[in-house]
Amino acid sequence: MSKYNKCYDYEVNMNEESKKLGANLKRIRMEKGMSQADLCRELEVDKGFLSNIEAGKQNPTLATITRLANALGVSVDELLK
After folding, report:
1. Of 40, 60, 63, 68, which has the fewest CB atoms closer than 10 Å, so is most exposed?
2. What separation in angstroms does the CA of 22 have from each of 2, 6, 57?
3. 3-80 has which fold?
4. Distances (CA, A) of 67 to 6, 11, 52, 54, 55
5. Is 79 exposed, middle or buried (0-12, 13-18, 19+ CB in 10 A)?
6. Where are the domains of the chain?
7. Per-residue pLDDT tens digits for 7-28
8. Residues 36-66: pLDDT tens digits?
9. How far apart are CA 35 and CA 40, in angstroms?
10. Which is nearest to 77 in space by CA: 17, 66, 67?
């Protein structure tokens, strides 16, 4: 396997994980009856930032994932499953 293929496989896998995180985040947020604006106010972040995470277009740091989980009252594991 070439170096390029390994990098491509890693990027594809990370993209899938980002989409899974985004879908879980959106589902949990909606189950809690929160809008994106509500969660943005809680976290003091821009709505575009949160929107990109939910769309799987941005890979948040572990610290951000932890803040998201705390704001939603769930475990980090719940967001990442």
Report:
1. 63
2. 30, 24, 9
3. 434 Repressor (Amino-terminal Domain) (1.10.260)
4. 31, 24, 16, 15, 18
5. buried
6. 3-80
7. 555 455 668 899 999 999 999 9
8. 999 999 999 999 999 999 999 999 999 999 9
9. 9
10. 66
